[in-house]
Each structure stands twice: as C-alpha cells, then as structure tokens.
Please model this.
Amino acid sequence: MSQEPNTFPSYCKALMRGPLPGREAQITMDPVPEERSLTPGKNNPDTRESAVLVLVSLDEPASILYTLRNSTLLNHAGQISFPGGRQEQGEYPRDTARREAAEEVGIRPHQYEVAGWLSPLFVPPSNFVIQPLLAFCDERPAITIQPAEVSEAFWVPVRDLLNEKKIKTREHVIRGKSIQIPYWDIHSVPLWGATAMITSELTTLYRRYLSYKSTKTGNGAAS
Model:
C-alpha cells in the first residue's frame, strides 16, 4: 500500500483500489455454492439490480447495522438484511443504497462516510445482483424504522461475528434438496444467505486489518 492506513476505514479504502476477497470470502457462508458459480450475462435483460448500505459504527464496540424485514413482505419476509432494495429506473447504485437506508431506518447520507463498494453478489433464485456500499460512522445514529418494511433494526459487534463459535449450521430444504446452511447465531433469527455472504467479506477484511495492525504495532489492537 502506498499509504499507511491506521484505521479500519482507511485500510478498507486502500484495499478497494485493488481486488477484494470477493468469492473467496463469500463462499464460506454460501448455502448453495454450486449455483453461485453461475453469473448473470451483462446483457441479460432479466437481471435486476439492487444495492444495500453496510454501515459500521466505530464507537466501542465497533458494530454493523442490520434490519429484520417485516414478516408481511412478499420477498425475504422475517429475514435479517442490510438496509437496501431494488434500484429504481435512472438511479445509480449509490443513490439506491442511500435512499433505502433513509427510508427504512431514517439514516441520512450526512451521518456516515462512504468508503466504497464491497464485491457484488449475484442471487440466482431471484436473479438479483446486490451492490453492497460500505460506510462508516463515528457513533451510532438514531434509528427511525419504517414499520411497513422493517420490524427491527439492531447493531451486532464485529467481535461477535469474528467468534467462530457463533457460526453454526441448520438443515434446510431448498428446491426439494436437504442441505446444511451456515449461519451466524447472533439473533433469534439466523443471519444467513446473501446478507451473511456480504458480512463474510467484511469480516475477512477486518481480520486482515487486525493482522496488518499486528505487524505494525506488535499487537492486535484495532480502532
């Protein structure tokens, strides 16, 4: 790296100038890795674009914001997700992530600093490509949920996600096939699927940051 990043946000920004862990990190939480090898054609008119805001608060302990989708929604009801949604016509992905975060949890762009994009994720069953926008805030902003879409918003400490004991598996039937799905046990609802895969890339970056800090300072302290 040409500069010496001394915080996790600056470390992420430096890494985002080059290739990210991407699939290498996502696959550890992928329930159907054989399907994820499929990629949408660039000219596929049926592929739908979406974007989410991955917001990390740097106050102690550093934590990630998640939402619990309303159980009455048609898609992914009652699941843990990031604030986000489908890209509207004429909208850029960054605008989508910011708009959805404002609508779903009341967080405005001036309350956080954007670091850049994590790796996109293709979701074959819905034919969606998710663009995760990584952002940081110094302290947790006030949350105002949109109850029609979100039943709960909550923060999960990064250190909990780094705890391997929090990763478990659960048997689930997908399209008639019984498989073992990996998930994080950090809520009454399992953190799995696309949200877990995006989280996995972020935790991979955090582990690399801790290793980087350790080589620079002789310990694993991070900020």
